[in-house]
Amino acid sequence: MHPNQSTYSPKPAELNHAWWIVDAEGMILGRLAAEVAKVIRGKHKAMFTPHADTGDFVVVINASKVRVTGRKAEQKTYFRHTGYMGHEKYTAFADMIEKHPERVIEKAVYGMLPKTDLARRHLRRKLRVFAGPTHDHVAQKPQQLTLTAAKGATK
Hints:
Elements: E1 19-23, H1 29-41, E2 57-61, H2 72-75, E3 77-81, E4 88-92, H3 93-99, H4 101-112, H5 117-126, E5 127-129, E6 143-144
Parallel strand pairs: 1-2, 1-6, 2-5
Antiparallel strand pairs: 3-4
Helix pairs in contact: 1-4, 3-4
């Protein structure tokens, strides 16, 4: 490195966190989650820094209308453990999308993020998921985020 060059690190005052809205209707779950995780972390910006919070806020609506490909609708399960020996709980994708469609997208985005404190903070603060078309972040004036890769092939 040249003596006059130094690595740029964004300062908190220089950061601008925009609000984006994504309509999940008809989108493929994994592709949607990958794109949302990228925006939440800030990898779409030139000033991305892995250890700093450079990401934007994302509001996902119509989570109940997200699709999965292949036979995942019948075969995919979500695992959790109660803390007691032998008390594993498995929830089918169909049950999860019916009862808690927000959790389907939250768990998919969580899988796309690194398992660090900063990434968990991103998930908690910057991701808002709603099952239907209405959301309570109108005051933030979110801009429409178009995700072409998440549409996928139509059947």
